[in-house]
Design a protein that fits this description.
Helix content: 25-40%
Strand order of the largest sheet: 3-2-4-1-10-9-11
Structural class: alpha+beta
Number of strands: 13
Oligomer: single chain
Strand content: 25-35%
Largest sheet: 7 strands, antiparallel
Radius of gyration: 16 Å
Length: 243
């Protein structure tokens, strides 16, 4: 089912966010607390981060291995600091291959994207219908076979047409629900904003700086967002609206 998170705020190390917190993403990969299907996410890991002093596009590290087996990431995670980070651990949906191309975050231009959820009947015709709505330009950027990348293509088309990140996510949820059902927790960042939906899976927010599938610790400030809502982090602070 996956677990994901994003940070937007003062620079922190990748290690402090993803590995060192009491209920870090690494811990959630083994023992998720709020996951609706199972509690392990051992089918891959990915993280993206920004350094706008160097370039607008994010850096990214991905693997098909469980996060706890990713020694390469652990070796540099304490050395890299960023003010904008997106990371995810993967529990592959039935029928989906376990390969690097299936691990979020997905990236194009300045964007990072993750899906915590799935589209029902994606391999029984729904995926073909959704792909038919993606532009040729964005179809050409799809590397694998996941529903996540097709949804990202739909989001990118909306952004290309001038939609705001919030409107792009909301419209993509609607497109997916026009042809199927599913759990559609989408997460998008360009390094200056983070936008996320809560549709069918848990999502929490802390102090306008973190959104996550689950709280990373026991601080009292974590707020669970209502189902069918959209949260945006940015210069104006956190805002939450109903989908």
């Amino acid at each position: 089912m996956c677990r994901h998170l994003a940070h937007l705020g003062p620079p922190i190390t990748l290690e402090s966010l993803v590995l060192a917190a009491p209920h870090s993403l690494q811990d959630q990969a083994r023992h998720a607390r709020f996951q609706r299907d199972g509690s392990r996410n051992a089918d891959g890991f990915g993280i993206g981060w920004y350094d706008r002093s160097i370039r607008p596009e994010p850096a990214r590290h991905r693997t098909a291995k469980p996060i706890w087996d990713d020694a390469s990431f652990a070796s540099f995670a304490g050395l890299v600091r960023s003010s904008a980070i997106v990371a995810a651990v993967r529990h592959a949906s039935p029928g989906m291959p376990i390969e690097e191309s299936g691990s979020a975050p997905f990236t194009a231009d300045e964007w990072l994207f993750s899906l915590n959820g799935f589209v029902v009947d994606f391999h029984e015709g729904v995926g073909d219908e959704l792909r038919s709505r993606v532009s040729e330009r964005r179809l050409s950027g799809i590397e694998g076979v996941t529903d996540s990348e097709v949804l990202f293509g739909l989001v990118l088309d909306q952004l290309d047409a001038g939609a705001s990140p919030a409107d792009a996510l909301a419209h993509t949820v609607k497109l997916a629900e026009d042809v199927s059902t599913g759990r559609l927790n989408l997460l998008l960042s360009d390094g200056e904003r983070v936008v996320a939906t809560a549709v069918g899976n848990s999502l929490f927010e802390l102090d306008g700086t973190i959104v996550a599938s689950e709280p990373l610790d026991d601080r009292p400030g974590w707020k669970q967002l209502p189902d069918r809502s959209l949260v945006e982090l940015g210069p104006a602070g956190p805002t939450c609206t109903t989908l």
